[in-house]
Design goal:
Blueprint lengths: L3 H6 L4 H16 L3 H42 L11 E5 L5 E4 L1 H5 L12 H4 L6 H4 L9 E3 L2 E11 L4 E9 L1 H12 L2 E8 L2 H5 L4 H20 L4 E6 L2 E7 L3 H6 L4 H6 L11 E6 L5 H17 L4 E5 L4 E5 L10 H17 L2 E5 L6 H16 L3 E5 L8 H8 L8 E2 L1 H7 L5 E5 L10 H6 L3 E5 L13 E4 L6 H12 L7 H14 L9 H12 L4 H7 L4 H11 L3 E4 L2 E6 L5 H11 L7 E8 L2 E8 L5 H6 L4 E2 L3 E6 L4 H27 L1
Parallel strand pairs: 9-10, 12-13, 12-15, 13-14, 15-16, 16-17, 19-20
Antiparallel strand pairs: 1-2, 1-5, 3-4, 4-5, 6-8, 6-9, 7-8, 10-11, 18-19, 20-21, 21-23, 22-23
Length: 667
Amino acid sequence: MNKKLPRLFQSSVRLYFMFLIAFAVATFVINDTSRVWAGVIQIVVLVLLALYSRISTKIRTAKLLDYLESMSDGMDMTVRDTPLPVVVFNSETSEILWSNERFQSITDDREHLFERRITDVVPGFSQIWLLDGKSECPDEVSVGDKTYKVSGQLVRTEREYIATTYWVDVTEYAAINREYADSRLVSAILMLDNYEELLKGMTEKEKSILLSDIDEKISLWSANSGGSLVKFDRDRYMFLFEERDFEGFVEDKFSILDSVRECEGSGGVHATLSIGIGKDGTTPQENHAFSKLGLEMALSRGGDQAVVRNKFGFEFFGGHSARLEKRTKVKSRVMASAFGGLLSDASTVFVMSHKQADFDSIGAAAGICCIARAKGKKARIVVDMENNFAKNLISRLMESPEYKDVFISDQDAMVEADAKSLLVVVDTSRPEQVESEPLLLSCTRVAVIDHHRRAATYIENAILNFHEPYASSTCELVTEMLQYLVDTTDILRAESEALLAGIVLDTKSFTINTGSRTFEAASYLRRSGSDTADVKRLLQSDFETATARYAIMREAEIIRPGVALAWSDEPQNRLTIAQASDELLNIEGVTASFVLARSGDDVFVSGRSIGDLNVQLVLEKLGGGGNNANAGVQLHSADLRQVVTDLTYAIDEYLEIDEKRKTNTKS
């Protein structure tokens, strides 16, 4: 070690000495008496400098050795005589300066330990925690077949920082801890979510054969885990297993979803399974509650997927199959009745949508105002009059005397609200997206009406939640409620046209997400006095928006079969981005489109689909949401080109998973 220390701590003057020697030799070579004497003087000076450098290096080395000795002498049981392995190294170069025999015994190379870096002796060891001022390594360190907990400190010398670390063998503790973590209970509920549709029209014998096939597939999938599977209802299963088996299910992408989908009922209907998984709870009861929340989330997102609920939030797997309409009028009637009861107890009704309200949200808000007016309740629509995409619709409504003072700001709503106020949130269920979060938090009575697939964050304190991911729009849901709560004579023409405009816009003129109930709602609104020509005029865009939209489309590329991507360096408003994404679907061969552009400091991404590609699952990777045919995301202070890269990667990842699913289904 004494030979090693001078090399580590001496001044870096060798290069200078070499140049000085070269100049001295050159002086001797030149045949001049005066210059020869100058060379002699240079040689003498060089010798003196060399002696000084050597002496100063020895002094520095001695000081360091004295420090190490004093450190070990002053703390006998801490360093020299401690039963713990100890190593001292240079924090800048990671070179080992000193270690006790116990540390040497845990390494493979005792003889050359002082010629190596700590990172060479212990691969993967990081000293960042020391540089951050911490006294304990946050992670356990593995050396061979042993596991250690490392603590230490930094001490500054004249020129660098020296690290002293102590290594505690926690191998047995780590093994027990891993076994505890691996053996923690995970609760899952599996549900055959289209049970009625699957068995409709089948004989009892055919039903028995099909259900037995599904039972067998689920049993085989769960058998390798060693868990306990119990069927406790005609379409539900309880599955308890250990944490150690969970990663296997994740790596397998919950292949049981694809296996069950292979089972086909009458009319070509394929079985679909929804799974809710609860983990990381403090008790089995909490895990069971998590699994029920996961199942509820899976069903609210359209089913045919697995949702994991842990202490941090939700994780989603699957959900690639096309949505089938699973709505009944029973739920609409029940929700309408419940909403009527809430109105009767309310002092004032406030209606609020997402930020930058659009035709669907304003149309739905107008429908709620119609219901409140018919029940004799005062209604207010909370909206930012400057930042919205439904100015034409708002102006059309404000022409009616009934809407003279209906539109207010969130500040005015906060002043008017009281303990009996009812807040109705439409067209979103995410608290971070509403027009006013303070208003949402201040109201204790909240109702939510939304048609988007539920995201990981949602309004949890709602006393009424009318959430239908199979509906085309929020306006469709509100229209169904209108039929049970008001007469057609109570609906203003402006209100019926507002509702119809929301449906037409979200369905792209009845071409996307359109079911039989959508046409029924549109027919009801037509009977209520709406004029389709007026609706068309409401949806018209101005000349500048149209030219900006087509400018973006000129930059579009087909990045994958059927997938178009366009992005613009020029700032655009959100409406133009969405419309450009819609327009790209009119191109032959394009079944999915994505448009990106900057608006202010943020980057907006709009996704549309008329094929198998689920744009919501793609944009969820970037933090967005929506439904399978219409989704978007707003990224704050993001780099546009990086977002393009991330989006392309998310599309490729989705297509790869979808291709594997189709291959497995065929096989």
